[in-house]
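Title: Comparing notes on inverse folding

I've been comparing how different people in this forum approach sequence design from structure. To keep things fair, I'm posting one structure and asking everyone to reply with a full sequence. Here's the target:
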C-alpha cells in the first residue's frame, strides 16, 4: 500500500524542481537498462538468438500490453518468448519505453508501427506515423495506403486524409485516387480545407473518378455532387456540366435559383453556401452583378 508520502504533487508544487527530479530519475533508470542492472525480465525470440533485458515496472508503466502480460500467467517468468515481432524492432520499442525516443527509418517504420500497435505503445505509434508522413516521398503514398489497410491504424488513416486534403490536386491525378471508395471521396470533398484553387477543380476530380468505372460509380453522383460548394460555381457551368448528371437535375435548378434570386435563399436548403477556406469567394461578385 502506498503511504501518504507517495501522493501526487499538488498543483502548487514547483514544476521546475519536479521536472529536474523526473529527468534525473529517468536518466538513472535508463542507465540501469543500458548497464543491464537490476534486470527482472528478459525476452527471447523464436527466430533469433537475441535476448533483450528490461524492467517490468518500466514496461508496465509504458504499455497496457506489458501491464496485462506481467499480471497474467507469464507474469513471474524470468524469460518471456516473443513470436510475432522481429528482435531488432522489439529492442527499439523497449528503448522507447525508457526514453520516449528511438531510431526510426524509412525501412523500419512500417514494422515499427505494426509492433507498436501490438504492444499498445501509443506514443511510439504517434512518433512513427509522424515520421512516415514527413518522409512520405521516400516511403511512397501507395506504401502508406497499404500499411493503413494492413494495420487499420486510425491515426495513420487520419494523417493520410489530412495529406490528401492538403495535396488534393496532385492526389486526384494519381492512379491511387481512382481506387478510392465513395466514402473516402465524400470525406475529402466535404472538407472546407480541400486545397483547390476553384470549385471546378473538385468537379473535375469527381468526373475523373466516375469515368474510371461509369456503370458502378455513376449512381454515386447524387452523393458526391452535393459535397461541392455549388453556389461558388458559375450558373452557366452548373447548367452545362452538373444539370445533365443523373440524379442532379433538381439540385442544379435549386442552386441556380439560390444564386440568381436572393429573396429565395431562405426557402432553399443548400448544404454548403460558403466558399472553402482555400478558394476565393465568387458569390458576392455574382450578387453585385445582379443588384
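Reply #1:
Here's my take.
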Amino acid at each position: 500500500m502506498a503511504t501518504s508520502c507517495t501522493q501526487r504533487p499538488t498543483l502548487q508544487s514547483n514544476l521546475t524542481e519536479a521536472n529536474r527530479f523526473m529527468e534525473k530519475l529517468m536518466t538513472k533508470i535508463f542507465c540501469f537498462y543500458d548497464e543491464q542492472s537490476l534486470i527482472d525480465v528478459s525476452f527471447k525470440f523464436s527466430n533469433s538468438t537475441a535476448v533483450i533485458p528490461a524492467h517490468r515496472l518500466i514496461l508496465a508503466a509504458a504499455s497496457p500490453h506489458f501491464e496485462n502480460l506481467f499480471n497474467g500467467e507469464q507474469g513471474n517468468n524470468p524469460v518471456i518468448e516473443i513470436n510475432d515481432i522481429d528482435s531488432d524492432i522489439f529492442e527499439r520499442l523497449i528503448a522507447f519505453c525508457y526514453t520516449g525516443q528511438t531510431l526510426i527509418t524509412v525501412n523500419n517504420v512500417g514494422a515499427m508501427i505494426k509492433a507498436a500497435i501490438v504492444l499498445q505503445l501509443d506514443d511510439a505509434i504517434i512518433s512513427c506515423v509522424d515520421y512516415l508522413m514527413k518522409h512520405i516521398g521516400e516511403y511512397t503514398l501507395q506504401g502508406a495506403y497499404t500499411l493503413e489497410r494492413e494495420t487499420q491504424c486510425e491515426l495513420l488513416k487520419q494523417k493520410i486524409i489530412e495529406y490528401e486534403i492538403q495535396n488534393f490536386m496532385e492526389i486526384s491525378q494519381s492512379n491511387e485516387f481512382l481506387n478510392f471508395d465513395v466514402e473516402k471521396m465524400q470525406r475529402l470533398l466535404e472538407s472546407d480545407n480541400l486545397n483547390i484553387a476553384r470549385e471546378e477543380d473538385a468537379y473535375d476530380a469527381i468526373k475523373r473518378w466516375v469515368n474510371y468505372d461509369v456503370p458502378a460509380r455513376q449512381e454515386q453522383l447524387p452523393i458526391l455532387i452535393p459535397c461541392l460548394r455549388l453556389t461558388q460555381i458559375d450558373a452557366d457551368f452548373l447548367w452545362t456540366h452538373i444539370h445533365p448528371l443523373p440524379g442532379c437535375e433538381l439540385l442544379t435548378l435549386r442552386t441556380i435559383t439560390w444564386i440568381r434570386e436572393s429573396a429565395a435563399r431562405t426557402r432553399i436548403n443548400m448544404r454548403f453556401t460558403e466558399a472553402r477556406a482555400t478558394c476565393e469567394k465568387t458569390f458576392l461578385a455574382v450578387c453585385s452583378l445582379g443588384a
